[in-house]
Design a protein that fits this description.
lyase; p-hydroxycinnamoyl CoA hydratase/lyase; 4-stranded mixed sheet; 2-enoyl-CoA Hydratase, Chain A, domain 1; 11 helices; Enoyl-CoA_Hydratase/Isomerase; alpha/beta; 2 domains; ClpP/crotonase-like_dom_sf
Length: 277
C-alpha cells in the first residue's frame, strides 16, 4: 500500500497519496471548509505538489468533515479583506480565481468528491474538476441572493454552462438548496451515490482513469474545454493539431501501440477496454 499524508504548515489543506491517487482535502472542517484568503493562497502550493509528484496520477478534491465547501468565508474573505481596501480585495480575488483556474487546467485528471455542503464560491472548484461525484446527502446552493449579492467568482457562468437557462435562473433567484440526486439530474455532477459508497465509487472512477494513457487524457480533457467556444470548423482543425501534438509528446507512442495490440495481437477491443500500457 503506497500511502502517505502531507499537510500544509497551517493545515488548511491535506494530501494523502494512495496507489496513484492524491486525495486533496480542504481542511477547515470547523468552518465547513469555507475558503478564506489563507486557504486560497496555499492551494497554489497544493496544486504544485500534486502536479509534480509521480505518486499522483489522479487528483480527488474533497473536504474534511461534513462539507465539501460552504463557499467563501464571509468574515475573512469579504468583511476583513474589504476593510483593507481595493488592492487587498484584488489580491484575494487573484488567489482564489487563480487556483480554480489552475485546477481546471491541471496536468492530471481531477475528480470532485462532494461529501457535503457545496455553496456559492465552491461551485468554482467543483466546476474546475474534470469529473464530479456527489453524495445523495450533499446539499448544493447559490445562497448569494439571500445576503444581497449576485453569484460571482464564476458561479453564474458555471450554472449557465452546466444547467438550462430556466434551471439556472431558478436557483440563482431563489437561493433554494438541492440534494446530490437533483444536482446529478441537473448536470452539476456526473452522478450521486449514498454517502457510505462515495469514496468507493470515486476510487473506481480514478482507477479507470489510471489505466489510460496520461498524455492522451490531458489532451482530451483540454481539447473538450477549448472546443466549447469554437465553431465546428475551428474545432475540427484544432483537434487535428492537438492530436499531432499529443503524438509528439507521448514518448511511449501509445497511439501506435494501441493500434498494434488491436490489429496485430487482437488482445483487446477499444470499445470494451484500454490497451496495455
Amino acid at each position: 500500500m503506497d500511502q502517505q499524508t502531507t499537510s500544509a504548515s497551517d493545515d488548511v489543506y491535506k494530501i494523502e497519496y494512495d496507489n496513484g491517487v492524491a486525495w486533496l482535502s480542504l481542511n477547515r472542517p470547523d468552518k465547513r471548509n469555507c475558503m478564506n484568503p489563507t486557504l486560497n493562497a496555499r492551494m497554489h502550493d497544493a496544486l504544485d505538489e500534486v502536479e509534480a509528484d509521480d505518486r499522483c496520477g489522479v487528483v480527488v478534491l474533497t473536504g474534511e468533515g461534513s462539507a465539501f465547501s460552504a463557499g467563501m468565508d464571509l468574515k475573512e474573505y469579504f468583511r476583513e479583506t474589504e476593510a483593507k481596501g481595493p488592492l487587498a480585495v484584488r489580491r484575494a480575488q487573484r488567489d482564489s480565481y487563480g487556483w480554480w483556474r489552475r485546477l481546471r487546467w491541471l496536468e492530471k485528471p481531477t475528480i470532485a468528491m462532494v461529501n457535503g455542503w457545496c455553496f456559492g464560491g465552491a461551485f468554482a472548484p467543483l466546476y474546475a474538476c474534470d469529473l464530479a461525484v456527489a453524495a445523495d446527502e450533499a446539499q448544493f446552493g447559490l445562497s448569494e441572493i439571500n445576503w444581497g449579492i449576485l453569484p460571482g467568482g464564476g458561479a453564474t457562468k458555471i450554472v449557465e454552462q452546466l444547467m438550462t437557462q430556466r434551471q439556472a435562473m431558478y436557483y440563482i433567484l431563489t437561493g433554494e438548496m438541492m440534494g446530490g440526486k437533483k444536482a446529478a439530474e441537473l448536470g452539476l455532477v456526473n452522478e450521486s451515490v449514498p454517502l457510505a459508497e462515495l469514496k468507493t465509487r470515486v476510487r473506481q472512477i480514478a482507477d479507470v482513469l489510471l489505466e489510460k494513457n496520461p498524455v492522451t487524457v490531458k489532451a482530451a480533457k483540454d481539447a473538450f474545454k477549448r472546443v466549447i467556444d469554437m465553431t465546428y470548423d475551428n474545432a475540427e482543425d484544432y483537434l487535428v493539431v492537438r492530436q499531432e501534438a499529443a503524438n509528439f509528446l507521448d514518448k511511449t507512442e501509445g497511439r501506435k501501440e494501441g493500434i498494434r495490440q488491436f490489429i496485430d495481437e487482437k488482445s483487446y477491443k477499444p470499445g470494451l477496454s484500454s490497451y496495455r500500457r
